[in-house]
Amino acid sequence: MPAAAFKLFIEVLDELAKGNAVTVAPVHAELTTQQAAELLNVSRPYLIRLLETQQIPHRKVGSHRRIRLTDVLEYQRLDEARRRDAQRELTRQAEELGLYEA
Questions:
Q1: What is the DSSP letter of 62?
Q2: Is 69 inside any structural domain?
Q3: Closest CA to 88 of 42, 80, 40
Q4: Considering the entire predicted model, what is its pTM?
C-alpha cells in the first residue's frame, strides 16, 4: 500500500473515531446546492445568497446550479480562518478592556 494511501486511511479512521462523518469524493466532483449547503452546514437559501454574491463560484446547468467540491472546501477553509481571526480580535479587545484574562 502506498504511504499516501495509508496516511489517508489513518486520517479517515481518526475522524470516524472522533464521531465525525467522512466522505471520499473525487476533487473534480460537482455538488448540487443542497449537497453544498449540507457540507457547509448552512441552509440552502443562505448558500444561494453566497452563490449570487459570487462568494463561491458555480455554474448553471439549465436552471440548476452546480458547485465544484474544491470551491466549497476553499470557501469553508477561508470562512473558518475569518472566524478564528474574529475570535482572536474579540479576545484581544476583551483583554485590553480587562474583561478577560488568558
A1: T
A2: yes
A3: 80
A4: 0.71
Pairwise CA distance, residues 97 & 84, whole Å? 20
Does a structural domain hold residue 10? no
**In this structure, is residue 8 part of a structural domain?**
no
91 backbone dihedrals φ, ψ, rounded to 5°: -65, -45
State how far the Cα of 42 lies from the Cα of 68, in Å rounded to an integer. 17
Q: Give the strand pairing for 64-68 and 30-31.
A: antiparallel
Query: pLDDT tens, 39-91?
Result: 999 999 999 999 999 999 999 999 999 999 999 999 999 999 999 999 999 99
The C-alpha cell that represents 57 in the structure block: 463560484
